[in-house]
Amino acid sequence: xxxxxxxxxxxxxxxxxxxxxxxxxxxxxxxxxxxxxxxxxxxxxxxxxxxxxxxxxxxxxxxxxxxxxxxxxxxxxxxxxxxxxxxxxxxxxxxxxxxxxxxxxxxxxxxxxxxxxxxxxxxxxxxxxxxxxxxxxxxxxxxxxxxxxxxxxxxxxxxxxxxxxxxxxxxxxxxxxxxxxxxxxxxxxxxxxxxxxxxxxxxxxxxxxxxxxxxxxxxxxxxxxxxxxxxxxxxxxxxxxxxxxxxxxxxxxxxxxxxxxxxxxxxxxxxxxxxxxxxxxxxxxxxxxxxxxxxxxxxxxxxxxxxxxxxxxxxxxxxxxxxxxxxxx
Length: 329
What we know:
Blueprint lengths: L5 E5 L3 E6 L5 E7 L1 H12 L3 E9 L4 H9 L3 E8 L6 E6 L5 E2 L4 H5 L16 H6 L4 H4 L6 E4 L4 H13 L4 E4 L4 H7 L2 H6 L5 E2 L3 H7 L5 H10 L4 E5 L5 E5 L4 E5 L13 H14 L4 H12 L16 H13 L2 E2 L1
Parallel strand pairs: 1-4, 1-8, 2-6, 4-5, 8-9, 9-10, 10-11
Antiparallel strand pairs: 2-3, 6-7, 11-12, 12-13, 13-14
């Protein structure tokens, strides 16, 4: 029987390598937008996430088993022995910010045995596509509610079209790869946003392919492209939530958590918890308020596996604080 709080989450399961500001390093860390979103949906929001990803032969079965113990259904994760797993590298600066991929100069001073772990694959289009689910991977799944994480434009178009043709009842999507949109324009958005139910871009993405454009104007543009609901995630500035069907719109604040410069995973956690809240019957605004509160827990997690169920009182306080700051637009 399908759980009423089930959300099927599509994206990447990556293996990450990190250089810290003090020059030490860590390799073999688990990451990826599908894992962050799934952990948010399940561990934080108490939903029933089903992850869809492609992992390589170098992704440990023991790690998949560990992820499953966190309440994430990994039956949709396909193993491919033909390709190395997607890998992401970071290098942190003394001020807490980071560079991705890790700069060549920072990698060059690492021991010979470590450097191969810092081969970032995110700029290899062919490998990226090989490590992401296809429409054929999703075809056997009978699910009502989907979340698609950040994907290359061609895979974004393929999956949105395939899911809608298959009768998916609710599709929410993050932004396609921003660097492709900057290079090729937002034609993929014009052609496909009318097929989705909720579009959840991040301002960090839109500021790359539409620099200088007011975020409110961008929300209106996405509505013109056909997206009925737009939720623009804006980091410390919260989110803009707009429903073209009802004409309602709100500015939802972020919960104040101090000066966190590393927001890795926060946007994905927002998306996963937002989808779970809607699956549980929350209205659009309530789902966005809860997602804004849940996303703050990612700021203190170095890895998605560090996320833990929040204390009830602390979560309630964060949700109440965010709700108090909501402003109708």
